[in-house]
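quick one before i forget lol
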Amino acid sequence: MTKKLVCVIIVLSMILVSSIAIAQNHGEDQAKDTNSQLTTFIYIASIVAACLAIGLGVHGPGVGMGQAVRGAMKGIARNPQQYGKLLGTLMIGLAIIESLAIYALIVALIVLFANPFILGIG
């Protein structure tokens, strides 16, 4: 429990330090400063959203893969002659489950690098 708390504190402090570094003002006028603050907020929100997308988007497929492998191993243990059929079905199922995690990664990368919310600020 202590390690998790330390990790959370480190991540939150890194987000805080990065937001301060991104939010530095270089002498722009007030309108640009407001726009800069909005852009900084959108960048920070995008980083948090990408972290949540990857974290939650990989958790589900990871649990599903574990359940699939457990079921296949139980099936092989009960009926070893069906090893070939179970292995083929297992591999196809794992590939489909893994595609869900890849979709979560793609969404996170789009939010981070091709951010559609920044384009609307202009």
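fyi The mean pLDDT is 80.
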